[in-house]
Design goal:
Strand content: under 5%
Distance between the termini: 20 Å
Low-confidence stretches: 1-11
Largest sheet: none
Radius of gyration: 20 Å
CATH topology: Growth Hormone, Chain: A
Shape: globular
Mean pLDDT: 81
Number of strands: 0
CATH superfamily: MFS general substrate transporter like domains
CATH class: Mainly Alpha
Length: 398
């Protein structure tokens, strides 16, 4: 452990029970930004809008999340996380209630901004885990907590699909608000005190993001590959309900939601990638995961209207995206212990900007050129990410 690690951690310790709590916080809060994905047709029917128009909520959620990553996540280095985390969770619960009671698409979009901004609490928690974990077990600890986050992402689609089909899409967001609100009441007790690492002004804190980006090549490389990979993830999932509800599949929201279970391979990838990163094989792990993303979109581009091909692509895509994400995090959290929240902000802002652009592209592509144009965009983004990683320095730092 370096001196900066020791000083920043103070007396905080990462226990097995606290990992479970942090995983739950991440899972429930991030799930809030994914409940919509299998629901575009049913929400559109209720609000008298087309499913393709409703799919813009994904872009709004990701833009809100990206803004929160830039403006809010750095506050983890600035404020006591025991207060910051519950406050953000409470704001998320309010936003979810707003969505559940909205009577127009415009009001849904407004509340989606609130949910997107506040759901970045998950990244504040991930930065906390990276700070208080022992350096030799950091990759494993991040992988375990991220498993909870990823299960939230994946199961959100499955749960919301079933709830919407058998109850109501509004009921889904009401239950989600209650879950996040209750968890917020217990969050403060589970978060240990960690000495804040930044004591300047808020504006200086934001300026330091640019300084860190320029100074740290590892962060720049991770930010670029992360953005491209999450663009791929969003390209697929943002149009999945549109594709699977149309010919030749014609699935309902419950069946579409089940595709989230198929993607549970991504949660397994998180644990595997974390262990491989701890063993010093970060570059190799990242290269393999990026190549898997490319393989998934090649499958979709060749035979995206074949159910077996789509299922295989979901497994490979989610495994590759989440494995690459964990490896990137292991790389960037191995540097600058005094700036973990700011490094998280830089990386995750880039990550979700990529996701927002992926959602934006896929919506336009689906409406103008159909699913093959969607898949082609994924091939190009995944190819660029794979090429960049293959030609990057083969060092543990990335």
């Amino acid at each position: 452990m370096t001196d900066s690690d020791s000083g920043n951690r103070g007396t905080a310790r990462l226990t097995r029970s606290s990992i479970w709590v942090f995983a739950a916080i991440c899972g429930f809060t991030v799930a809030s930004t994914y409940y919509f994905q299998p629901l575009f047709p049913v929400v559109g029917s209720d609000l008298h809008q087309s499913a393709a128009t409703v799919s813009w909520v994904s872009t709004v959620l990701q833009v809100g999340y990206s803004v929160g990553l830039f403006l809010i996540v750095p506050l983890g280095d600035y404020f006591d996380r025991r207060r910051l985390v519950p406050a953000l969770m409470a704001a998320s619960a309010v936003g979810l209630i707003g969505i559940a009671t909205a009577t127009s698409l415009a009001s849904v979009l407004v509340w989606c901004v609130v949910v997107g901004l506040s759901s970045v609490v998950a990244q504040v928690v991930v930065g906390l885990v990276a700070t208080i974990a022992n350096p030799e077990q950091r990759g494993k600890a991040i992988g375990n907590v991220m498993t909870g986050l990823l299960l939230g992402v994946l199961l959100a689609r499955t749960v919301s699909g079933f709830v919407a089909q058998y109850l109501s899409w509004r009921y889904m967001f009401g239950v989600a608000a209650a879950a996040v609100g209750i968890l917020a009441l217990f969050a403060a007790r589970s978060i240990p005190f960690v000495e804040r690492s930044y004591r300047g002004s808020y504006l200086a804190l934001l300026r330091s993001l640019g300084e860190t980006f320029v100074a740290e090549a590892t962060v720049r490389r991770a930010a670029l590959t992360g953005a491209l990979n999450f663009a791929c993830f969003s390209i697929f999932w943002n149009t999945s309900s549109l594709h699977l509800s149309a010919s030749p599949f014609r699935f309902g929201s419950a069946v579409i939601g089940l595709f989230g279970l198929i993607g549970v391979a991504g949660a397994l990838a998180a644990r595997l990638a974390g262990r491989m990163a701890d063993s010093g094989r970060q570059w190799l792990t990242s290269a393999i995961m990026n190549a898997l993303i490319l393989v998934a979109f090649v499958l979709l581009a060749i035979d995206g209207f074949n159910l077996i091909a789509v299922i295989l692509a979901v497994v490979v895509l989610d495994f590759g995206v989440q494995g690459s994400h964990i490896t990137n995090q292991s790389m960037i959290y191995g540097i600058r212990a005094d700036a973990r929240s700011r490094i998280t902000s830089i990386y995750m802002t880039s990550y979700f900007v990529g996701g927002a652009l992926g959602s934006f592209y896929s919506t336009l592509a689906f409406r103008s050129g159909g699913y093959q144009l969607v898949a082609l965009g994924g091939v190009l983004a995944a190819g660029a990410s794979t090429a960049f990683r293959l030609f990057s320095p083969r060092t543990q730092a990335g």
